[in-house]
Amino acid sequence: MITITDVHKIFNKGKANQVNAVNGISLEIKNGEFLVIVGSNGSGKTTMLNLIAGSVLPDKGTISIDNADVTKLPDYKRGQWIARVFQNPLSGTAPDLSILDNFRLASLRTKTKGLSVGVNDVFKKQVQEKVASLGMGLQDKIDQPMGTLSGGQRQALTLLMSVMDSCKVLLLDEPTAALDPRSADVVMRTADTLIRDFNLTAVFITHNLKDAFNYGTRIIQMGEGGIINDLSGTERASLKQNDLFDWFA
Ligand SMILES: Nc1ncnc2c1ncn2[C@@H]1O[C@H](COP(=O)(O)OP(=O)(O)OP(=O)(O)O)[C@@H](O)[C@H]1O
């Protein structure tokens, strides 16, 4: 569980251009919850994700993950809990290395779920099986440099690699914003499957209201650094796509 208590983040404090990007948010994100965050530009979504990731530290308030207080821990020390996929497909992988070597690198970085590193043929076969599960035909290309793949293919592989380590929390920062609709669809379906298979707690920022409607177990709308809508359970289940569009009317 991620517990966020009265968290504030102020940029340019005391200056004329001061911004209260996150303004006293309290939020509990349960284990296995798939939280979607929507909101207009500048409403504080990315700052919120950065606060959870530890790439931005709060001015006030506390954040804990599984009852461990991580408020002052920088992002590299939250790696045991958190994996993050960014908007840019180029940011998650090494372009000159093959798919296989990228997986090898990822598995050396952390203890990788379901892969036995060291035995080459066994490892290769396991990677092929994992990659085949994406349904993109990439299992026949695992010796090919990552840089030769399309953005959608790379983003799907980045997702797969990031959730295979020991993480419990997956942060998705507009992971499909740079992709064409078909690749975006594959990446979102992959994310959804992986979140379920590994029982991850996920936080997904998107401007795509169709994705916001189709995915997730809970939806939050941010506005001016606060939460202005928060639906889960039966309320989320009975939400209509048009209701979501009305939030932005
Ligand atoms: N490092 C920073 N320095 C100064 N101001 C910042 C910084 N990061 C964010 N802000 C400001 O904080 C506010 C919230 O920004 P944030 O990026 O969290 O919004 P967002 O909801 O993710 O927006 P978008 O949908 O455009 O990505 C904005 O006014 C932004 O300009």
UniProtKB/TrEMBL annotation:
InterPro entries: AAA+_ATPase, ABC_transporter-like_ATP-bd, ABC_transporter-like_CS, ABC_transpr_LolD-like, P-loop_NTPase
SUPFAM superfamilies, sorted: P-loop containing nucleoside triphosphate hydrolases
Gene3D superfamilies: P-loop containing nucleotide triphosphate hydrolases (3.40.50.300)
GO molecular function terms noted in the UniProt entry: ATP binding; ATP hydrolysis activity; transmembrane transporter activity
UniProt keywords, alphabetically: ATP-binding, Nucleotide-binding
Domain ABC transporter residue range list: 2-249
Domain of life: Bacteria
A Pfam family hit: ABC_tran
Keyword Calcium: no
One Gene Ontology cellular component annotation held by this UniProt entry: plasma membrane
Protein name, per record: Putative ABC transport system ATP-binding protein
Lineage of the species this protein comes from: Bacteria, Pseudomonadati, Bacteroidota, Sphingobacteriia, Sphingobacteriales
